[in-house]
Structures are given as structure tokens and as C-alpha cells.
């Protein structure tokens, strides 16, 4: 299988918050897109792992992705050891993505930065043919994505590029709201958290407006890069 765009998130909802609009744009264009969640978010204060999986499925449908998978690593306590890296390598070789998106390089939640480094490392190691992996009993060929981009999450990081998501902002917010156990719900009886208030949803809109303003559009999503981005013509840059 060849995938155009594959987004990793350490928790279900990370991808929607950081790159939901970008994914929806590519899915709508008919490209093969996917999401892989590393954990089930079982340490979340609100809801539970089973509910998060149901919400993730609903969000994936809203975004229009081709597939979504959960690797079942341990929320908060994943180690980045050989076994866990190999799980990600198997997924990379299975889906063979041209572009990988993953968590912010550093953030308020320590899992985000740790996941960022873990996925980036797996992307490199996946290209080494002497690392043997199997999927459903079949030997996999080595494969390395062309490029890795890191979406920006809670803490502000200066973006290296911004994607115009103005026409897909509603889709992004609908996908975020699919995680109803996590975010603003005035009827919820569960404990308040840093992301459960109405102000957090306003922050999401404000962040996208801030990113969009930098490139002269209404809404945008920012990313950092691991290597310079190449273009064939300067006139293609917005």
C-alpha cells in the first residue's frame, strides 16, 4: 500500500488538534491519507479508552481519511524501546507514506515531544534493510518516508511552513468536537481539565487564525520541518 499522507499522534485527538484541517484537505483531494494513534489515551482524566476509540473512529470519518489504526502503546509510560520502535516501523512499511506528520517537537504534555522523537527515529530506521520486520507473516521491504513534518500543539513554536485551511476550518472543528468526552460540554459531570473549558476551543480557533494571518489567509496550521522544503518555482509559494 502507498499512502500520500500519514499522521501520527501519541493520543487520539492530537492529530485533529494539530493537523485536522491539513489532513481533510488532502483527503478531499482524493489522496490516500491515514492516522495512526500510538496509545489509546487511557490516562486521560475524562472518558475512558473504549470511548476514545469510538470518538477517534467518528473523527476519522469526518476528516475522510482512508484508514485509522491504534498501536496500543502505554499512555504516559511508553519507553521508545526496540519493541515499540519496531511496531512503528512495521506500520511505516505497511502503509509506505510519502509524507509523515507527527507530534510537536516540544510541548506542555511531555508525551508529545517524546512521541515526536520516537516517530522521527522510526522513520529513519525504517529505511534500513538490515532491520527485519514482518506483517501478517510476510517479510517487509525497507521503506523511508520522503519527509517528516511536526505539527504545532499547545505551546507556540515558530512554524517553518503554514497550510491554508480556511475552507476546512469547520471540518477541523467538527473532528475535534467528535471527542466529546474530552472537550467543552456544559452537560458533563466529569472533572474540569486544561482542555475541557470553552476557552480551549476558542484558543484552537485563535491559534489557527494566528497561523493564517502569517500567510495572509483566514486560518492556517503550522508545521516545523527536519530539512529544508524544496519548491520548483518561487511563484508556487503563497
Keywords:
single chain, 238 residues, alpha/beta, two-stranded antiparallel ribbon, 19% strand, globular
SSE topology:
Elements: E1 3-9, H1 14-28, E2 33-39, H2 49-63, E3 67-73, H3 82-95, E4 97-102, H4 110-125, E5 134-135, E6 138-139, E7 147-151, E8 161-164, H5 169-177, H6 198-214, E9 220-225
Parallel strand pairs: 1-2, 1-4, 2-3, 4-7
Antiparallel strand pairs: 5-6, 7-9, 8-9
Helix pairs in contact: 1-5, 2-5, 3-4
Strand order of the largest sheet: 3-2-1-4-7-9-8
Structural class comes to alpha/beta
Measured between the Cα atoms of the first and last residue, the distance is 32 Å
Helix content: 25-40%
Low-confidence residue ranges:
none
Q: Helix and strand string, N-terminal first?
A: EHEHEHEHEEEEHHE
Describe the largest sheet: 7 strands, mixed
Tell me the radius of gyration: 17 Å
Give the count of helical stretches.
6
How many strand elements? 9
- Percent strand equals 15-25%
Averaging pLDDT over every residue, what do you get? 96
- What overall form do the CA principal axes indicate? globular
Amino acid at each position: 500500500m502507498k499512502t500520500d499522507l500519514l499522521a501520527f499522534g501519541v493520543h487520539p485527538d492530537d492529530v485533529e488538534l494539530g493537523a485536522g484541517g491539513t489532513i481533510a484537505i488532502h483527503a478531499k483531494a482524493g489522496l490516500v491519507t491515514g492516522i495512526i494513534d500510538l496509545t489509546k489515551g487511557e490516562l486521560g482524566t475524562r472518558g475512558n479508552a473504549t470511548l476514545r476509540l469510538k470518538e477517534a473512529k467518528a473523527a476519522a470519518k469526518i476528516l475522510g481519511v482512508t484508514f485509522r489504526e491504534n498501536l496500543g502503546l502505554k499512555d504516559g509510560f511508553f519507553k521508545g524501546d526496540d519493541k515499540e520502535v519496531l511496531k512503528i516501523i512495521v506500520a511505516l512499511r505497511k502503509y509506505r507514506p510519502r509524507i509523515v506528520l507527527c507530534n510537536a517537537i516540544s510541548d506542555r504534555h511531555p508525551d508529545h515531544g517524546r512521541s515526536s522523537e520516537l516517530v522521527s527515529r522510526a522513520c529513519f530506521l525504517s529505511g534500513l534493510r538490515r532491520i527485519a520486520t514482518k506483517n501478517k507473516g510476510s517479510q517487509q521491504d525497507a521503506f523511508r518516508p520522503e519527509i517528516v513534518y511536526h505539527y504545532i500543539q499547545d505551546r507556540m513554536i515558530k512554524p517553518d511552513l503554514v497550510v491554508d485551511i480556511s475552507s476546512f476550518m469547520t471540518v477541523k472543528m467538527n473532528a475535534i468536537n467528535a471527542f466529546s468526552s474530552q472537550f467543552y460540554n456544559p452537560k458533563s459531570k466529569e472533572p474540569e481539565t486544561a482542555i475541557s473549558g470553552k476557552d480551549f476551543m476558542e484558543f484552537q480557533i485563535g491559534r489557527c487564525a494566528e497561523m493564517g494571518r502569517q500567510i495572509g489567509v483566514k486560518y492556517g496550521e503550522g508545521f516545523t520541518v527536519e530539512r529544508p522544503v524544496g519548491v520548483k518555482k518561487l511563484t508556487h509559494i503563497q
